[in-house]
Amino acid sequence: MPDIHDEAALRLAALDQRYTPNRREIVQVLAGAERPLTINEIVDVAPSVPVSSAYRSLTVLSDAQVIRRVAGNDDTGRFELAEDLSGEHHHHLICSNCGTVVDVAASPRLEKALAEAAKAAAEESDFEVHEHRIDLVGRCSNCQ
Amino acid sequence: MPDIHDEAALRLAALDQRYTPNRREIVQVLAGAERPLTINEIVDVAPSVPVSSAYRSLTVLSDAQVIRRVAGNDDTGRFELAEDLSGEHHHHLICSNCGTVVDVAASPRLEKALAEAAKAAAEESDFEVHEHRIDLVGRCSNCQ
DNA sequence: TTTACTGCAAAGGGTTTGCAACATG
DNA sequence: CATGTTGCAAACCCTTTGCAGTAAA
Q: Is the pLDDT of residue A2 over 80?
């Protein structure tokens, strides 16, 4: 498993993009988080990065598959490291009240059932399924 | 199974809200769609409804559980009829290119596996899980 | 006759972009 | 040096809100 930053630099290079201190800092922040972060949360932790640059960097990093955009319950964009960089496959618990997103490990049994269902759905609908997303929506301990 | 509009009126009444022609038209549009619609799509089909009213009505209908907001891959809000009004439980195919969301029927096997996984996750994380969401992300036939 | 609803227009908030300066390969 | 990147500020777009008028219980 290569270093996250080395791999990030590689993936950016494939798009003729550079791995600048700005982008490195964003990746570092996401690598240190145990849940997807909003742009606000990111720039709060990395105040040296201007908001506009954060938006641009997140777009580029997302294009390069270094990070991934996560859809929550609200329209606030959240970001996490790409799964193949961060470690293991996981899903999300989403609080319908405050919008917080928490990671949760995937279960093999569930993954197997999902793989079957995805195959069937793809055939039926002429979709080419690349990935899946399972969200459990409810109330976090703070909002119950 | 009562009529959709009767049931919608009931649920609104429970919140001291009225089932006006505006709201009825929105429900009618969503009832006739076979996939979640964006606000733009809704007002395109129902031009008599001003945009600001559409936003307000969708909020109220959503609070009353007549409709449900659906998160796609982008930040565009999409809406569909509540599942208990529209018929059967389903999941979504999301095109990562154009953002379109298509309904797909749920499989019993998948639901069972998910129920187990949700139980485990809820216990671990102190979440109170109310519903789940399964999205298959890929390319629709148009965007392949 | 009280309370909810509507529609317009203005305000708001998050995101994107133009541009000139800078940095990197 | 050619191209990608940055930071500021302005522009943008979608969504929300104030308000005065309307309609429904």
A: no
Sorted by where each starts, the structural domains of chain B and their CATH numbers stand as: 4-138 (1.10.10.10)
* CA atoms in the 13 A half-sphere facing the CB of A83: 13
For tokens 């009225």, what's the residue?
A: B18
Instruction: Please give the Cα distance from A53 to B27 (Å, whole number).
Output: 41
What's the whole-number average pLDDT of chain B? 93
Interface contact A75-B73, CB threshold 8 A: no
Instruction: Kindly list the residues of chain A whose beta carbon comes within 8 Å of any beta carbon in chain B.
Output: 69, 71-73, 75, 77, 91, 93, 95-96, 102, 104, 106-107, 109-110, 112-114, 116-118, 120-122, 124-141, 144
pLDDT digits (tens, 9 = 90+) for B2-32: 799 999 999 999 999 999 999 999 999 999 9
pTM for this prediction: 0.88
Cβ neighbours of residue A84 closer than 8 Å, sequence gap 6 or more: none
A12 touches strand D (CB under 7 A): yes
